[in-house]
């Protein structure tokens, strides 16, 4: 028997949705990736960084990703000391738990949202408490004073789609004794975001990613924005070379091409609204979404049946077996053409 920690031995680990090996030939709408390529400036920057023979890769990257902090700071209007870069926002979510929740202490999040918070907490031996949602999209039973060390709020919510209003989040920040982490993975697709709250509350952290709106899921680039003392704590515990050279080059170029980002997001929002209306016209329930995905349930509320029907046609969406979600599916917004094919398939499946 290997001397494994008890909590690691007993945990299941995060189980991502199944994906077939020949996924390249499918319509892939299961993990909220961007259907468009990244900015041409990103590709150029990566090739330049690589150089003709790749010899730049011999050298370690800048350990603090300083240029990225500066570029992100300029973009969001914060001093770079308020920014930390991460190997995907998952890394910074993990480090927030490591920094703020010791073994046996509590972290909380909304269910349904991103269940990976729970997995990350389990690894640290932190306790997990989840809260449901009310019909008017507020957190059910959230105490006047929440004593957990970290509370994660996914806004826009995934997999459901709506954002929480800034005034409501502002109130939550006051009710949290610990840190309130606003996971704004999908913020660039939304009408509003809660970034301003970082200035207003010392316990608020906002996380962002380049995986979705910037089409860079394959490069693993995320970031957090918070008070410098929070950033300093996160800097102590991250891997010291957490972003590779190519990711650093890509990130600066991506953040600087805001025109490309805006156009990409505009197209996705337009397709999302069109697809929402089409689904409703064939009797689907669709939750209004602020992200690049939507949560939709067929008239018979049998999400698995429709998921299987799409699967048989090589269209992959996400079905969750959780009883709260099993009636529907989360469908990422692809190109207009992909969504037209998906709609035609849904009509066929009935
Ligand atoms: N939070 C949410 C809500 C997500 O959906 C995802 C991606 N699936 C992440 C965080 C992690 O994103 P990444 O590590 O690619 O930045």
Automatic annotation (TrEMBL):
Domain Aminotransferase class I/classII large, by residue range, is 26-346
Known EC number(s)? 2.6.1.9
Superkingdom field: Bacteria
KW Transferase (keyword) present: yes
Q: Name one Pfam family in it.
A: Aminotran_1_2
Which reaction is this enzyme known to catalyze?
L-histidinol phosphate + 2-oxoglutarate = 3-(imidazol-4-yl)-2-oxopropyl phosphate + L-glutamate
Mind listing the UniProt keywords for this protein, alphabetically? Amino-acid biosynthesis, Aminotransferase, Histidine biosynthesis, Pyridoxal phosphate, Transferase
Post-translational modification N6-(pyridoxal phosphate)lysine, affected residues: 212
Q: Which Gene3D superfamilies match?
A: Aspartate Aminotransferase, domain 1, Type I PLP-dependent aspartate aminotransferase-like (Major domain)
| GO molecular function annotations of the record | histidinol-phosphate transaminase activity; pyridoxal phosphate binding
**Cofactor(s) the protein requires to work:** pyridoxal 5'-phosphate
The record's section on InterPro entries has: Aminotrans_II_pyridoxalP_BS (IPR001917), Aminotransferase_I/II_large (IPR004839), HisP_aminotrans (IPR005861), PyrdxlP-dep_Trfase (IPR015424), PyrdxlP-dep_Trfase_major (IPR015421), PyrdxlP-dep_Trfase_small (IPR015422)
A Gene Ontology annotation in the biological process aspect, one of them, is: L-histidine biosynthetic process
Q: In which pathway does it act?
A: Amino-acid biosynthesis; L-histidine biosynthesis; L-histidine from 5-phospho-alpha-D-ribose 1-diphosphate: step 7/9
Family of the protein in this entry = Belongs to the class-II pyridoxal-phosphate-dependent aminotransferase family. Histidinol-phosphate aminotransferase subfamily.
Tell me, how does this one assemble?
Homodimer.
Question: What is this protein's name?
Answer: Histidinol-phosphate aminotransferase
**What is the organism field in this record?**
Geobacter hydrogenophilus
